[in-house]
Structure formats: structure tokens, C-alpha cells
Specification:
232 residues; five-stranded antiparallel beta sheet; 4 helices; 26% strand
């Protein structure tokens, strides 16, 4: 029996399908590389905003005078690691820049009836206001961002199956706390009280008052838990 070479021939319809698929791949690649000016980029992304309507939950009457505002920025360096594993296996370090503002205000709505005294001739007045306080940190999402992030192997695998929302929230909370603590060490409240005093003096002067006394808070009480520090 003579051996015969058997040539397997591909059907014409299969060759047509392969050629069409190759042509489509070529067109997609050329469009993605912008080599065909008239062809839109098939890999271009678009964003659809499918958010629902904004719901008004509550309205509060404000009786505060915002006397000063401070802008802050902090770099949060947060590192998590395992006790017995190297960082390349299990560990995470993130550098995050948090930017936000803290407002200082004087609460005018908490004044009692004896906080304001006016003379009979309406030329003199004395006003005692509460000390200025700080609002909570208002973190600006447009100016807050992650600078760098290094993860171990296990952490990268975990992120593949999970979400990073909790870590981002932790970073923003930590940044806001650091900014709030820094604001307490500034002169924001003193500046707010000075600006509030200036505002009230200008308003009362325009009303005809010539003798205006404005003070803030009760006199400081001595502390019994620790001796007072000597003044310099």
C-alpha cells in the first residue's frame, strides 16, 4: 500500500471568519493607537453619572459668627506590618496628603439675658460673649490625595478580592484629626474673637453707642489638679 500525503484543507468559510476576525483586531489596534484619523478610539472611556437626586435631610438655623478660618495641609505616613512576616509578604505603607480648613466661630445664639447691658441714655453698652470655638475639620477631597502606596503580596491579593474603601476612610479620618489638633495650637480662636469684637463695635457705633465694652467668656478658674505654671 503506497503512502499518500494527506493535506488537510481549511474550509473556505473558516478562512473567511479568521480573516474577518484579524481585520477587526487590526482596525481596533489602529483606532486605539490613533493611526486612523477618521476612526473613533474603541478603547475610549466615558463616564455616566447615574446618581439619584439630592435629598434635603434637615435645616438648622445658624446663630454663629465665623470670625476666622485656617487652611491646613498634613502628610500622613501610615504603615501596617506583621510581627513575624517581612513587609514584602504582608505589610502596607501609604503616604497621604490631607488638605482642609478649620473655622473659628463665636456662638451668638447662646447669650443669656444678662449678657448684654445698656445704659439708660443708650450711649454705653457692655456685652459678654462666650469664647470662640473651632468647627470640625472640613477636608477638601480635591486637594487630598494618596502620594504613594506600597503593599505586600498578601495585601495585593486581598485588594483584588476586596475593596480599599475602609483604608481610604481611615486615612481621611486620621488627616482630619491631625489638622484639628494643629488648629487648637494656633491663634484661630483669638483671631475670631478679635474680628467679632471689631464687627460688633462697628455695628454698635453706627447705632449711636459711644462707650462699648465687649468681653469673652467667664474669668479663668484656677486649676486644682495641677499647680499653675510660672509666667515668663
Amino acid at each position: 500500500m503506497n503512502a499518500e500525503n494527506v493535506v488537510s484543507r481549511t474550509p473556505w468559510w473558516a478562512r473567511a471568519v479568521i480573516a474577518l476576525a484579524g481585520l477587526m483586531v487590526l482596525v481596533l489596534l489602529l483606532g486605539g493607537l490613533h493611526l486612523l484619523p477618521g476612526l473613533p478610539n474603541p478603547f475610549a472611556e466615558r463616564t455616566n453619572d447615574r446618581s439619584g437626586p439630592v435629598l434635603l435631610k434637615s435645616i438648622q438655623d445658624m446663630s454663629r459668627y465665623e470670625g476666622a478660618s485656617g487652611n491646613f495641609e498634613v502628610v500622613v505616613d501610615l504603615q501596617k506590618d506583621a510581627k513575624y512576616l517581612p513587609d514584602i509578604v504582608h505589610g502596607e505603607r501609604t503616604l497621604y496628603v490631607g488638605a482642609g480648613s478649620v473655622d473659628a466661630y463665636v456662638d451668638l445664639g447662646s447669650l443669656k439675658s444678662d449678657a448684654v447691658t445698656v445704659s439708660d441714655d443708650r450711649k454705653s453698652t457692655a456685652i459678654r460673649l462666650p469664647h470662640a470655638a473651632l468647627e470640625r475639620t472640613n477636608l477638601d477631597p480635591e486637594r487630598s490625595y494618596v502620594v504613594s502606596q506600597k503593599r505586600g503580596l498578601f495585601d495585593r491579593v486581598g485588594d483584588f478580592f476586596g475593596s480599599d474603601t475602609g483604608n481610604a476612610q481611615k486615612l481621611s479620618i486620621l488627616a482630619a484629626k491631625k489638622i484639628q489638633d494643629a488648629a487648637k495650637k494656633t491663634e484661630l480662636t483669638a483671631r475670631a474673637e478679635a474680628n467679632t469684637r471689631s464687627m460688633l463695635q462697628g455695628m454698635l457705633t453706627s447705632l449711636g453707642f459711644t462707650d462699648i465694652s465687649i468681653s469673652f467668656g467667664p474669668p479663668p478658674q484656677p486649676s486644682h489638679s495641677a499647680p499653675a505654671s510660672p509666667s515668663s
